[in-house]
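Problem: given the chain below (135 residues), write out its structure.
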Amino acid sequence: VLGLLVWALIADTTYHLHAAYGWVMFVSIFFWIVTVLFFVTYLLQLQLKFYVIPWPLVLMIFNAVATVLYITAFITCAAAVQPTSWRQWDYNRRAAASFFAGLTMIAYGASTFFSFRAWKGFGSNAATSQVTDHT
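Solution.
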């Protein structure tokens, strides 16, 4: 939802006049689409059919890359906001897009942390470590 807000707010301005917003649009739309695809994959439990793919590792790498690129998009978007713009509504939308890009960056960063913990298996407790497979 946060990524959707970023690209929707930027798309509602005259972003094509500023080259910096092209990068922000690319990052936000690309990661929004891929995140929706991962969400549908997990919603339909398709990851169980593709058991060869190491899903925790894939998600950790995806979230880490998304975090790094959203850092660049956030900095680019925030630096390109011009408070003396002659179109006040563009300023408001771009400032809001910068805010939501920052929130999206934080969300992907937190998701990277939790993906790393899932990949390394830090979330297990005493009950799960005692279970043995006797098949």
